[in-house]
Amino acid sequence: MVVVLLIFSLCLHLVAFYLITILVQRMNQMKGEQPIMDDETLAVAMEQYLEEIRHENDILIERIQSLELTSKAHDHKKKMTSDEAKLKEKETVETLKGDINPVKQQMKKSFDEVLLEAAPLPTSQIQDQVEQSTEAKILQLHQKGQKIEAIAKQLNLGKGEVELTINIFKKKEKGQ
């Protein structure tokens, strides 16, 4: 019985050794291969991903605004009597159907235009704190001539993130 167990153990050790040598060979082969995605392909993929997110955000904003319009109509309906409510509901539905295009146009407005239309806040109580975005800091340091590694170290970011931000900015400049 002991002999059988020793032979079985020896066979298992030989199989394990064989598998380890195969794994080492494959790892050495993979070290010599090109990466799956180069920086430019990665930058394009990230841009496409960001565009998809922006599109989804636009859809979400449209849905939120339509819900706000319907909730306002519902609140107003509760205040009126049932007969008045029925008449107003018909008017509201027709108004909402007519208001869809202006809502879409308002969605296309830039952030600055929306801010200009907003009611001004009392400035005596507001203390502005301006802080640059990470992307702005990266681009500012890059324009000053700092290397990617130095920027990444200074801002506690990964080298890939810094490279990606710079590449996206360069691509946008070329496109404009």
Automatic annotation (TrEMBL):
* Chain segments annotated as transmembrane: 6-24
Any idea which UniProt keywords this protein has?
A: Membrane, Transmembrane, Transmembrane helix
- Domain of life of the native organism: Bacteria
Q: Which InterPro entries match?
A: DUF6115
Q: What is this protein called?
A: Uncharacterized protein
The species this protein belongs to is Pullulanibacillus pueri
